[in-house]
Amino acid sequence: MSDKDIEQAIQAKGKTAPRVTPEHIGSVISSEHYFTAQDGVNGAYGTPRDAPASLSCLTFCVLTLKNGFSVTGESACASPENFDAEIGRQIARENAIQKIWPLEGYLLKQKLSEQ
Question: Residue 83 CB: number of other CB atoms within 10 A?
Fold first, then answer.
């Protein structure tokens, strides 16, 4: 069940208490960046380097939030023949987004406890 499916189920049951929503999660992201481990190795040395082929199949997503905090997600492909850069970016992004939920949940709970 996706985050949006869960939100629809919550709305269908008429739940209206404060909560973190998929829209809220999207609204706190200020930038996103993608690279492979091979890109990272090349960037670290300033020139292309020989490295294990598997580094080209490991994708990272860095999401920077509006408050300046960053979260990361990753996606690894076991078989290089199945590697698809776009799918790798989508999976890495979703993994990064999943790390935002508990952070925003904590912030909401803190705000509610201060009221």
Answer: 19
pLDDT score at 104: 98
Dist CA 2 CA 101 (whole Å): 13
CATH number, position 74: 3.30.160
Measured CA to CA, the distance from residue 87 to residue 82 in angstroms comes to 10
Number of domains in the chain: 1
The parent domain of residue 59 ranges over 30-114
Q: Is it the case that residue 89 has pLDDT exceeding 80?
A: yes
User: What pTM, to 2 d.p., does this model score?
Assistant: 0.90
Cβ neighbours of 65 (radius 10 Å): 17
N- to C-terminal Cα separation, the chain = 33
Mean pLDDT of 51-60: 92
